[in-house]
Automatic annotation (TrEMBL):
Domain Outer membrane protein beta-barrel: 23-214
Keyword check for Signal: yes
Residues of the signal peptide: 1-23
Name the record gives this protein: PorT family protein
UniProt KW keywords: Signal
Organism: Jilunia laotingensis
Amino acid sequence: MIKKKSIILATLLLMGISLPSIAQIGEQRNNFAIGINGGVNLNTVSFEINNAASSQSKIKQNMLMGITGGLTARYISEKYFAMICGLQVELNIAQKGWDELYETADGQKDLSRSYVRNMTYLEIPFLAHLAFGKDRGAQVFLNLGPQIGFLLSDSEDAEGWTNEQMNIQKEYGKKIENKFDYGIAGGLGLEIRTKKAGNFLLEGRYYFGLADFFGNTKKDPFARSANRTITIKLSYLFDLKK
């Protein structure tokens, strides 16, 4: 895991170095746009059980659906050959968490019990924006960069469990110990740019969380507890400066 984090951070560092270099030799642009975004989150949590501290088995999950939305600001600084280069930052409210999956002895879904943890975050992604296409018309784009988040609220909804059973599941009733979240976000999308009506974007994005929201020491029940999110969103941007 440490090696994987190092590779990801090194990639981001190289991107940060290469983008200014491109800016020095590319065709200069000066386009600043702002707007709104909204969409759907499909969230799971990457759990790793600490066997030294817990006898709990693997946590199976359904995808938990939530909403996301907020503000977007984007600055396009240059065009290098066919590639349009810029930076994008967002301020979003996002619903995350997890929905546990239970099965009967014959492998069927057990509908007699459920557990859902709902977590709401304030999220700020800082993204490199790379696009290919026409200044007016269709563009295909890639967004990639770090993202941070702050937990605003969380709640749990459990049904069909006795107190004894809930004591076995260590995540039940457990407080969130780390409210600061961070990770890597990346997405692909299509943008339609118009002259008067603004710019319309459709994007599919994946967030790979690097922070654990539960404690992860040897005495804690979980060695890993990080968000994994698939987001499908629509954005509308209008140009302030061209």
